[in-house]
């Protein structure tokens, strides 16, 4: 047999092998989207390595996926740090929300929020074991302790944050900025967090929509189809982050940017600096579709897809409560019909 005839036989075998390999990768990416090697994640990681931003040396410090060791905290935050340790999952993750007196009143948002876990699917009640509720005043703290086991009183506040605060008023702005500082404290302790506003109703496990490739995962008011597009309108009512050096520096930069926009809330500041964050820190951000983390700004009522629902774009506490109660009844009806069918 000649050398040329052997070569002719080897070539098809190589091509067959390559074809099988590519088909296998395609199959995994299509049918196992949570796999560690889907094509979209490979593409994102490759593109991320090509983006311009910090220097190589800076990125080695900021982009490492190794969890940061716990950082020393100010003494008055010791109790919060201990609570984070107690509430965390085995893989060092907590869920965080905030409440004041107005939202903690009987039959108000706190009750509706906790009830939503019991009305949900995916056995999401277990997440309550890892939920920290930060009370912004003493009455909210007392109510929290009567219904939940991880309650923290945030005492070093400069404003009275107990009442329903008008959107973009100074007390409102002070209220929403407290959560960003708490995010930093959690990350510095080496823990991941999922922050959820107290008026977000949970129907299913929202962690199913968080991708491993992203540094930050953020909800949206309006979503335009691409989870990496900064043209999406962000909503910081739900935010997920892991404790990397990069994310700690991002949160610090975000807090410092408040000085440039002193009369606005943390969400608007983020919207103003999101391109800076992406460039300076090579930050990979995932914006979650409103089909999954829903709201009234871009309403989707497909209960086969919704995991959470946030009454943003509804003004006033009474109106929010009424709309949430209506949505909850529709969810219960959907579940009941599913059981019958």
UniProtKB/TrEMBL annotation:
InterPro entries assigned to the protein according to its UniProt record, in alphabetical order: At1g28695/At4g15970-like, Nucl-diP-sugar_transferase
Name the keywords, alphabetized.
Membrane, Transferase, Transmembrane, Transmembrane helix
Example of a GO MF term: transferase activity
Transmembrane spans: 12-32
Q: Which Pfam families match?
A: Nucleotid_trans
Q: Where is the Nucleotide-diphospho-sugar transferase domain?
A: 126-321
Protein's UniProt name: Nucleotide-diphospho-sugar transferase family protein
